Amino acid sequence: MAWFFDLFTTGSVGGSVLVLALISALGLILGSFRIRGIAPGIVMVLFSGLLFGHFGAVVAPTMLEFIRDFGLILFVYAVGVQVGPDFIAPLRRYGAALNVLAVCIVALGWALAAAIGHIASIEAPVAVGMLSGATTNTPSLGAAQAALRDLPTYTEQMGQLPGLGYAVSYPFGNIGVILMMVVIRPLFARRTAEVGGVTQAAPLADLPHAEGRPTPANGDLRQVLAMFLGIALGVVVGSIPLPVRGLPAPLRLGLAGGPLVVAIALSARARIGPLTWRMSPEASTLLRDVGIALFLSCVGLIAGRRLVETLTVGDGVRWMAWATLITLTPMILAAVAARGLLKTDYASTCGLMAGSMTDPAALAFSWSVTKSDATMMAYATVYPLTMVLRVLSTQVFVLLLTR
After folding, report:
1. Strands 271-272 and 198-199
2. Between 147 and 99, where is the model more confident?
3. Which long-range contacts (CB under 8 A, 24 or more apart) does 3-12 make?
4. Beta carbons within 8 Å of 231's beta carbon, 6+ residues apart
5. 330: domain range?
6. Beta bridge partners of 276
7. Is the separation of the CB atoms in 276 and 215 below 8 Å?
8. pLDDT at residue 269 tops 50
9. Angle in degrees, 0-180, between the axes of helices 13-31 and 44-54, rounded to the nearest 10
10. pTM score, whole prediction
């Protein structure tokens, strides 16, 4: 039986596939159990990955990185295809207000991280890592690390600090957003049709759909061709450098933002020549779920390796406690503002929360609960701007606060 256990520890191709498949399968099984009528859904794959990572399951590093990023690409591309046909109308109606609120969420998180670093005497490189982890934004962590390397005072030890702050903050960053979605649900149980004499606008899910969506037949190779061409174009768009004066590295939409923007644009266009950019609901849902399962499997496996060590040694617990404030405080205020000022529905508010935290796991959970396109539309509406701001703000954090 030694050969069997070697599959989990050697990082071979076969063993890596086995580990990720079992992580996904266990997570999906756990996610199917209902707790007070709510099934956690596919987000449980993340916790399954944490468990496997803690007990030493191994996936080859290059394979782990590839599958994580490819899963994320599949997920965001499928989301873009689903929301693209109905994207313009809600964007015109809600886009500005939702994005203003998303900007406030980003700004508040930044300010909290800076304040916590000062009050709790946490070094800025750790605090910026906590900010990235608490907001579940990996690209911003990379941007912060790049900014640190350009500082004249940079040392190798300093370069490791953001990763530690991120490691203790990221798990609850995911859990916290999902927890807030559960907590705020009663606020949206009853909606008032008219508030202050102003009739409330229809929720995103109630807006009329684009008529006559083409639904390609099963086995249509042109649909598969269109998908791969769209993904390729999305990767190219996400890789375009956007130089900003005063910053040490250019901004990019990345592997998450590029495919999302391209999928929205192409599916809104519907057809170019013989190619149909839209998918049937069944195809896009399958692509989305496979992608997020792969992504969460890898993220959980990576975080699970050092989570217990980080929490039990040094300042890990203290950092995690402070990071919960960075996660929860903006979410609470956003939910109150969305419900009280914008009069959005629950599904749209969940999409706003997931998008402003650039959190695919939270989006997957909210979709499993609401089953509404409004969630994905709100997510896609705020995601591009939020991603740019997250990447930009962590670099500014490093440049202003690190000495």
Report:
1. unpaired
2. 99
3. 8/56, 8/57, 8/58, 9/56, 9/57, 9/58, 10/58, 11/58, 11/59, 11/60, 11/61, 11/63, 12/60
4. 73, 74, 77, 259
5. 85-188+214-279+308-401
6. 271
7. no
8. yes
9. 130
10. 0.72
Closest to 343 (Cα-Cα) out of 208, 180, 206: 206
The continuous run of DSSP H or E covering 235 comes out as: helix 221-239
User: Cα 167 to chain center, whole Å?
Assistant: 16
Burial of 207 (0-12, 13-18, 19+ CB in 10 A): middle
DSSP 340: I
Above pLDDT 90, what percent of the chain? 18
Burial class (CB in 10 A: 0-12, 13-18, 19+), 312: exposed
Q: Is there a contact between 131 and 113 (Cβ–Cβ < 8 Å)?
A: yes
- Report yes or no on 367 lying in a domain: yes
Residue 189: partners with Cβ closer than 8 Å, 6 or more residues away: none
Considering the domain boundaries, does residue 172 fall inside one?
Answer: yes
Average pLDDT, the chain: 80
Indicate whether 48 belongs to any domain: no
Q: Number of folded domains in the chain? A: 1
Q: What angle do CA 136, 138, 144 make, to 5 degrees?
A: 115
Task: Give residue 344's pLDDT band: very low, low, confident or very high (50, 70, 90).
Answer: confident
Residue 393 domain-assigned (yes or no):
yes
Whole-angstrom distance, CA of residue 386 vs CA of residue 113: 17
Residues paired with 199 in a beta bridge: 194
